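Service request form, structural biology core

Requester: graduate student, group of Dr. S.
Request type: structure prediction, single chain
Budget code: on file
Notes: please return the result as structure tokens.

Sequence provided:
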Amino acid sequence: MKLLFVHNNFPAQYRNLASALAREPGVEMVAIGAGSAQPMPSVRLLKYALANADVSGTHPFARRFDLECRRAEQVLYSLSSLAASGFKPDVILAHPGWGETLPLRMMFPRAKLIVYCEFFYGAEGRDLGFDPEFPEPGLDGHIGLQLKNATTLLALADCDLGISPTRWQHSTFPTHYQSKIEIVHEGVDTDLVRPDPQARLQLPNGRLLTRADEVITFVARNLEPLRGYHVFMRALPEILARRPNAQVVIIGNDGLSYGLAPPPNTSWKSVFLKEVASRLDLRRVHFLGRVPHRTFLDALQVSSAHVYLTYPFVLSWSMLEAMSAGCLVIGSETTPVQEVIRPDHNGLLVPFFAIDELVERVVEVLQGPARFQGIREAARQHVVEHYDAARVCVPRMRSLLGDEPPDPSPARGYWPGFSPPVSNERRSPSAPRKANTQAAARKAPKAKSIKAESKRVAARAGK
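Core staff response, request fulfilled:
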């Protein structure tokens, strides 16, 4: 069998699958990626270069698609070179988020095309408008949001099959495409990511942290509001005041992955650190930045309380890895997290904006760690049983590569997550929780405001 992976940041979501396939006889693998792609054993990697492009002359609605088409052109050159070498894939696995899937069906019409359905942008029940601290876009912003789905929709029309990692992420896609999308997580290496009572984490100042210390951990690819960095930082002064021996380990870059950009010449890290710095003992707050995976695991293995917060968005690998490492995860009460964590069984949940409640739960865990040992063990067990890469997720994904189309009915029930609420309502940090019916009732005024804005835009155009 010949497989082609197409992902600008290869191996990304395909690492576990590619590692397993490398051990199978008769499997030949090629990957196409951008400059950030990394080689893997038994995978021939072709990299393309994407030159800087000036899209200022393109209509604002189409600028993202313009860039995606330019990327697709570079992928096409790589595909042409690959075809000329005699390689014709039986199966193509690709991520549609950057336009790389646009030329695939045309170039290899007989290959089985499987696309990774990570997230479908929308204005309701997802990240947009969830946090009242940040402004919602106007009508043009909503149109631009829908246009971010353009290459994904084209890929869904072209593909034979889609793969989505969680039930909630699957639910963000249009209903008429959902039957085409299997729900299979890429999995966690639970043999590597496991508890270690002897773990030690060396801090930049030379101090060694162990399981005997009070260690609060927070991890995100970039420290930004979408992953709750601002909420976490606002909780720290009270947590550290009440736990004078606690150490805080924060892992993440200063850049931007998702959401709104910070003010010019700043980062979200600096903005929210500055907000609370005068009330913090900064000798106990350790920003490690981007770290090697081994250092990340050391941090999880010495963690006393691991805080994971997120808007309704893609579930981070780090949360499942934290559970696999036996962390006591205190997560946000948002749908991606609720699908995995059952409160007081395999983790703890707090409302995303409830800073005081976050403080109380972290302090409670630090005060009596032995009381939560069963939750730590249940978290580890849940990941081992349902998200283990080698024994659960990769075999399921491997079965989708065969010639016969999979039966869709088992797949709908395959995902082991708990059923989350239907939607995430937007509410202010100080507002009490309300029933979903009340959240639904507020949709009408929002729709009315968009309609009114549409009329104003039309009126201006007529002048």
